[in-house]
Fold this sequence. Notes:
Elements: H1 2-29, H2 37-52, H3 56-63, H4 74-86, H5 90-100, H6 108-120, H7 124-134, H8 143-156, H9 162-170, H10 177-191, H11 196-204, H12 213-224, H13 228-241, H14 246-256, H15 269-286, H16 290-303, H17 309-320, H18 324-334, H19 339-355, H20 359-372, H21 378-390, H22 394-407, H23 415-428, H24 432-445, H25 450-463, H26 467-480, H27 485-497, H28 501-514, H29 519-531, H30 535-546, H31 553-565
Amino acid sequence: MIIMSIFKFNIKLISQIFFVIIFFSTLHAKNLDNFDEGDSISNYFSAVLLLNDNQYKESYNFLRKLNGLEEFHNNYSSKFLLSLVNSGKFNEAFNYDKKSEKKYLSNFDCNLLTGVYHLKNQNYDLSRKYFLRIKNKKSKFIINSFISSSLYNWVNFINLEFNDAKNKIESIDSKFENLKNIQNVFLHCFYKTKDTELFFKKLTSNEKIDFSRYNYFYATFMANSGKILKAKEIVNSSLKLYPRNLLLNQYKLDLNNDSYENNFNCKNISHVIAEILYISANALSSQNIYEFSNFYLNLSKYLNKNFHSFDTLLAENFYHTKNFDKAKKIYKEIGKKGKIFLWYAAKQNTKILINEKKNEQALKNLTKAYNQLPEKNIYEKYDYARFLKNNDQFEDAIKFYTEIISKINKNHPLFPKATDGRGVSYERIGEWKKAESDLLLSLKASPDQAYVINYLAYSWIEKGVKIEQSLKMLEKANDLKSNDPYITDSLGWALFKLGRYTESKKYLQSAIKLMPGDPIINDHYGDVLWKNGYKIQARYYWKNTLNLEDVEDDMKDKIKNKLVLGL
């Protein structure tokens, strides 16, 4: 595993070195008499590596030393612009854009930034000019064609009648159908047509796609129209379907306290375009393109600085790129925005601390945040119980799960999760009968839970009971979650216990390919190799198991015996 991670890192490093060589060979070919190539290589190389790690301010500090390089290499201009925007230096970014404008009219990002800057300052004619430059231009990201046409359309809507504006929306490429539907709703909202409510209802009632976020915009539209009771009704009914939605939960509190802020208004073009940029950022984030996702997110924040959902995605991007300090800083600010955001930020910070191997601090911090909540709802209690279970606080977890189960019926969406959590907790403290009962209750309420099936079936196999039944259950789990290493291992182990060694080897071999660092899977694979006559290979995997992390002492003793005596 260590060798592979080093190999992957080296590939990344080599690719960066190759890029820099090509980059500066093009510079050299231009015969730059006054360019300090040695210092520039080191500064640019450092900047690129930092930028790829989303270390924007640090990247900026290196790139700014290369002032004037944009005259010779367009890629530098893009890198510098990204560092400026993602460091929050919007005025400097705009001034840089302005200085370089004549040379980089074709640069998508530069023109996008300048257009957004003028939009922010309500210079719609200038904004339109720059958005026109990027309209229909080829870009390395498919989503950019949606961005360019959408932004140009919206700055034109100020001067268009509704039907003309609607035709513009309808002309959006069909591959962006869902995004077109969202814009169509905002269009009706912007023009405040009599059908606005109908279009919001149509969008948010889509059963194939989760448009729960747009219930928030629906509610804000009603509140901004003076229909507070209707806004409350929308929020309350939406929360029955989407009880975890951050925006809706916080907006409910704000509406009830008559302290809601107008963080989004579809009559404000800047707010609408900020949401379009957010959609694009979310799409890029889902593809692990975090650098440009953050670029669009920061542009969104620039246009609508009070909309907290932009911050949540930005923090998540930093989390996924392991920029934990930056993520924690954002979560700290998010936590100040209200009760719902406080709990969300606390949970996210806890995830970071666990990744940093600071489990005790994570427990302390989340417990403090939980105790600070004025009223604990059922979902917050579940979150806390789940955290306790995942951190081996099984007896405390059982208490919270029991309280939750006592307050909900079997049709509640949390019932199968809470009974599963309590069942696992009981199993880990050795109370198997209670564990088995809870796991069966969970599956009765929701039969297609692959991981619950796996947990119960594997437990039966380890106890030497109901193995045939376990095999059938694991085949179902494997159909539900194919290529899951734990389920694949369990399926192979059931076959092993039934003496079907050839079939077992096939599944256990797949499991170890999927999860080569897991000690149980290595041990199982060693066992099946032995039973299939591959005794040297079996001992190799047993020995390998002893060198892995988190191997319990009783497993070590068993493996040492097998190394001597075999099976």
